[in-house]
Amino acid sequence: MKRLLAHPVWAGVAGMALLLALGAALPRWLLFLCTMSAANGIVSLGIVLLMRGGVVSFGQGLVFAGGGYAVALMANKLGVTDALLLTFAGGVVAALMALPFAALLARYRGIFFSMLTLALSMVLYGVLVKTESLGGSDGFNMSRPTILGMRIADAWSGYVLYALAVVVSGVLAILARIYFESARGLVSLAIRENELRVEYLGASTSRVMAANFVIAAFMGGVGGALAIMALGHIEPQFSYWTTSGEFVFVSILAGHYSVFAVFVASFILELVRSFSSAYFPNTWQMVLGIFLLIVIRFLPRGIGSVWVGWQARKEGRS
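Now predict its structure.
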């Protein structure tokens, strides 16, 4: 039984079942907090995927907002209200937005990659602010989604969106774990360590990095779709650099050693931001910064390194 639950697929399924059961007992405010944590965690998981290849995207707000705007427009203009379809559509639209830039960005590393992604995100922000048909700087509201054609009752809307976020993030987390342990996923780690040697061995680093960028974009779009359905409102701020910075914050906090740690870090961010904005409304960003500095000081490889270290000690004793 222990070996079965240790497998990433069955461990993920067990975790989803536990969270779904736990959600029935949570208050509405905490359900919403967990829903946003799962949605934002998916976006940060895409950044972790890129970090494994040695690059960090400061422009995930581009795909986050792209997926969100696509979902809101599909619901309001086209009458597509099914939450499952909208979630998948948000990811596809975001991936298509990233596809034309993937080959170009795959050639850059370090600060150049980060600044180019940031520039793309800010270009979208400028376009959205100036486009009055999309609500300009105020954005617009989105109609409430449905599930398999059924309208969600007000009393159950929070739990249904929470359950959707748990299932979608759980499935993507399992797939990400499988991808990380695949040949292409391990090549990403090798690229980060010694890109030239990987090229000598015959692998195309550009193709791997381009594929990682598109996959991360898909995750960003899915996260944007879930977040906008939970909020019921979309605005240009979702593509602003501070939004992208929060996703990077979560990625650094989690590290690249554990998929589960990404969602733990996302929940911690939402929790700290919620309480610090309530009790320290003018200085909550400083509270977050101090919290990150503490984590970097005592866990320089992120929260995920705790699990990796525990596993290593366990294997050493056995």
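The mean pLDDT is 85.
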